[in-house]
Amino acid sequence: MTQSTFRAAGKVIIWGIVLAAFTVLFFGGEGPEDFAGDRGRIVTVAVLFAAGYAAFFVMLGFSGKRKGPGLNRDERDERFESKAGGIALSIVLAYVYLVSIVLWAVFQDDGSVPAGWMWFLGYSTVFIGMIAHGILTLLLAAGKVGDGEG
Amino acid sequence: MAKAEIRNTVRRHRFEKGEMTQQELADRAGCTRQTIVALEQGKYVPSLSLAFRIAGVFGTSIEDVFEFAEKGKKKAE
Known about the structure:
heterodimer; A: mainly alpha; flat; B: alpha+beta; two-stranded antiparallel ribbon; 13% strand
């Protein structure tokens, strides 16, 4: 396993757990429409988000370059990560567009979208971007998605 | 224009060098073992820098290890 695939797997696991917990918090309790007025849930989600980033940076540090045998990376890994980043960006853009359109379609008769859904869009965009980049990196490294070479 | 292809004889050179392992070649060439595996399977085209480093490990020229060929064209005799 290279540093690149280790970090990609770590990214998928960490942000997958955070996304699952966020989903429970957001749709639980009083529901998404009351999320913006529920200070307890807002703070909990913020702590969850911070914990996710803390775990993410710890994972990056743990997988950092060391002397001797260990996780390493080379030009091929950087190519995978770069390509995965480009595809993940497209996925994130499409996700934001789709969610926005769906929210508009659902709430157009109400005249406005509950603020809670803006929190959802903001947080979920980060999670989707991180998870997408991790999965794509793993798929490219495994040769499941062509990288234009060979 | 015919599509270009980079072929290599990394595996053959590796065995000719006292059955050098993929990991050892990767360590000496400054890349990962997974890259050597992909190279030998013809699934990866290395950068010029890596190609030169690999040839240097084998103590030979880059042309001895890597061959540039256009698909659909026969190799010149």
